[in-house]
Q: What sequence folds into this?
């Protein structure tokens, strides 16, 4: 069965520091991968997605993610975190259908 | 999240009451779905629809009914609310043949 693991429940970084949020998936075929961000009390905003092609994908707000098939990973990165990046981040996977499987989320806290 | 409208945004129910969460989209997307979000569990699929007149169960369908009489609307019904249904509910849509899923802004439901 498909699954997504986000091993870090919370991550705290200092403003201006780099960030990497981990995501591992379990899926038999080539997955479609997504990262969403959710600010407190808000809905989900799509940061970036990977369907095929270049394994390094660029998203909004300066985020990027790298698909590594050999490691079944799709980690999210940002070179310099801003206080406004504090939020919860969700990794998700789907096949060619319409049903997303979500990880449990990673809450990012940013120290001033 | 323009194009996917959820109402109400906040609702408090008493155990045993019934209510309907509304979801409307103006993007003419074939696929619509309902997710619930609970702390530490990410989002889980409740029900989904691949087109008007067609619905199916997701991962956590118990206690919920859906119908899809039009392309635009996909209401989620709680026939007899239980405290375990306290959650945040998200409606999502997707165009057939594409892989990007668009979310509504969420409906916060508390059952007391």
A:
């Amino acid at each position: 069965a498909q699954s997504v693991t986000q091993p870090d429940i919370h991550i705290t970084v200092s403003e201006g520091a780099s960030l990497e949020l981990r995501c591992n998936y379990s899926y038999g075929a080539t997955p479609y991968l997504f990262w969403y961000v959710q600010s407190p009390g808000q809905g989900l905003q799509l940061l970036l997605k990977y369907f095929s092609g270049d394994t390094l994908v660029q998203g909004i707000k300066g985020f990027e993610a790298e698909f590594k098939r050999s490691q079944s990973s799709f980690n999210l990165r940002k070179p310099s975190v801003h206080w406004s990046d504090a939020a919860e981040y969700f990794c998700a996977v789907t096949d060619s259908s319409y049903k997303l499987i979500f990880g449990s989320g990673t809450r990012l806290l940013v120290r001033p | 999240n323009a194009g996917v409208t959820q109402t109400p945004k906040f609702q408090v129910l008493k155990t045993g009451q019934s209510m309907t969460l509304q979801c409307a989209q103006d993007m003419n997307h074939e696929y619509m779905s309902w997710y619930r979000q609970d702390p530490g569990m990410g989002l889980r699929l409740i029900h989904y629809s691949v087109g008007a007149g067609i619905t199916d169960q997701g991962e956590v369908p118990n206690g919920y009914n859906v119908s899809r009489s039009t392309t635009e609307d996909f209401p989620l019904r709680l026939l007899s609310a239980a405290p375990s249904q306290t959650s945040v509910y998200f409606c999502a849509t997707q165009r057939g043949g594409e892989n990007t899923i668009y979310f509504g802004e969420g409906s916060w439901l508390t059952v007391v």
About this structure: The first strand of chain B starts at residue 4 and ends at 7. The two ends of chain B are 29 Å apart (CA to CA).
